[in-house]
Amino acid sequence: MSRFEEIQKRLDELSPIPVNLPKLYLLGDTGAGKTTIVRRILGTDKLKFPSVQQKRTTVAVTEYVLSKDLPYQATYLFKSQRMLANLVGEILEIAIENAYSHFCKGTISKDAVTENLEETPDERFRLRYILTQEQRKDLAEEIVSFMPVLDATVKELTTELQSRDEEMGVVVDLALDHHNDVKRALNTEILRLIEAKVAEVCDGHRLYSDPQFYQHTSSDLTAFVDRAKLLLSSAKDSISPVVEYARIQGNLLSPWLPSGVELVLIDGEGIGHDTREASRLSPRHLDYFHFADAIGLVEECKKPFASGGKSAIESVLRNGYAEKFHLLFTKLDEVEVGEEEEPSRDSQVRAVKKGLTNVKHALRDDGAEFDVGADRFYYLAHMNLGSLDSHSVSEVCRLLASISAKFSEAKPHFVEPIYDYEMLSSYLSKSADSFLSKWKAMLDTKHWQTVKAFNRRMCWEWDGFRDMEPIADFHAEVTRELEYFISHPASWVEAATRSMQERSIANVKQEFSKQLLAFARAVILKTYSSNWAEAMTLNGLGSTTRRMKEIQWILEEVLPNHRKPAAINMKDSIKKLLASAVVASKA
Questions:
Q1: Which of 36, 108, 247, 429 is the Cys-Cys partner for 103 at CB 3.0 to 4.6 Å?
Q2: Which domain holds residue 277?
């Protein structure tokens, strides 16, 4: 069972979603206006909830279960003590290494060390939200006082190992291992401070002793939201970094929405926070593509598809989710048209459509046909004003009505495709070469600390680190190579119209995508867990090269070159996944 499935199972035990509610998953580039849309639908804009900032803010995915029949209740799942210790340990390691670098130059300062205690390098865990400035300064002071001790150990090891200047970072890393007691003491102190903050916010909840969840209810909306902000907001005094997942329910529906509206609105992490991350969609989004009944991609009108939007659409198309897809354009009012001082809404919409045409052509060049109807495009303007304009109200209502109507439709009849599985092997000859060449180039160019941070997350069984996402690459390469094969079966079990065949193929693609993702995670994270752990333990001179070679070996085993004997087993596994996907589609 994946972590996503574990989370959903636990949430359904604590706060089940009514079966009659459609689920809408929103994704989009950071700052595109995704969370602003959520605020407007919830009617919590004046309460400034959820947080809206021009940077990565939504890290704990939040599900809003919206119905007039539900009381206000919030359920939060917390990260484990082990995970928090790992994240804090990474922050400490980087802060100490940076402090030592400045110590050697004679430029070390407590303020600089305090800054380095703010967050993990991927910005997914922000310690500065939980710890006060004074608390981090006290920790920085301890680190500064430790520098002479660390320096003595580094000099001792440098002489002993006869290391070169370019190896200094590795020597410092090794020296830190000689002082695990110092790191452990600092880590323990930070975990204690986190525990105290959680207890303060959550009615005395003992983070490492009580069950890993917290719930609160209220009959008053303002009081309810104020409490939720302490657990979810992207600001100091919030414990949001400790929250892994949240489900919030109640009559959180703007008064301008039609009276019968009910849905589950899922506000996920942004895409394209880092341009290196935007080349293909992270696996965490694929979990929601299958889970949700509708997918809403939010794009900013002035610079649509500048970052991760194109890869998101491509992923939607290749994995068979086109019928769930909706495209929301925000900030239409900021679109400039020629030299018009006050362009009309129609002319602004036409300008945005031109940009969309360019993306369609780019997708077609990549072999992905984007033929989603214009009735599933929505144009929103003036989202930050006191009240929504009539056009935007109409567009949001049209979106929700479309999702509700689709959800209420009877499940279409599935027509079973028949595949010649003996031909499948010929379609799996390029994916391994592409996967392995990309990773060899990546490992050759990455800084050793980045590779180590990636290795660490593989040990944690995360999907990846920044743009180093082997699960996404494995899934994307296999999906791309098999797309034609899946789309063109040898025959059909029964006669059907073209549209019914296309729907059936889409169902197979969705099921195959889901099973392939689970398979990729199992192989990469579980099968080779001891190898990732072994690579992580490497230290000392030469460890950088040895770690890189170990990781390269793991990836070569994961998706072997098609000429290797092991490739036959991999192809057989993928055949079984596709056959299983066809069976699951019939259910």
A1: 108
A2: 3-71+245-408
